[in-house]
Specification:
Elements: H1 11-59, H2 63-77, H3 81-95
């Protein structure tokens, strides 16, 4: 529990103190979850942008066309966009 207990720990104050501690724990847990999701989304965005750049360079196409091509593949294969982008980036590293 990360709070100060002022004026002692009397039995009638125990329930509100525990409630406050549980609420604070849930709030911190939610913030950590949101932070982890934001970090994952940012990493996925970086991989997608990298893959989009690879397609633009290899095919000599614009950004919109590269993104459309990149989006079509996971739809056809039933995979996530980030997975396909990561596979493309990995293949590019292997072929370089």
């Amino acid at each position: 529990m990360s709070a100060y207990v002022v004026n002692g720990l009397k039995p009638d104050r125990l329930a509100p103190i525990i409630e406050a501690a549980v609420t604070r724990f849930q709030m911190i847990r939610q913030m950590r979850t949101e932070l982890a999701e934001s970090r994952r989304a940012l990493e996925e965005r970086k991989v997608i942008d990298r893959a989009k750049g690879l397609l633009m360079k290899a095919r000599g196409i614009g950004e919109d066309e590269a993104y459309a091509m990149l989006r079509k593949t996971p739809m056809d294969q039933g995979r996530r966009l980030a997975e396909v982008a990561e596979a493309l980036a990995t293949a590019s590293r292997l072929l370089s």
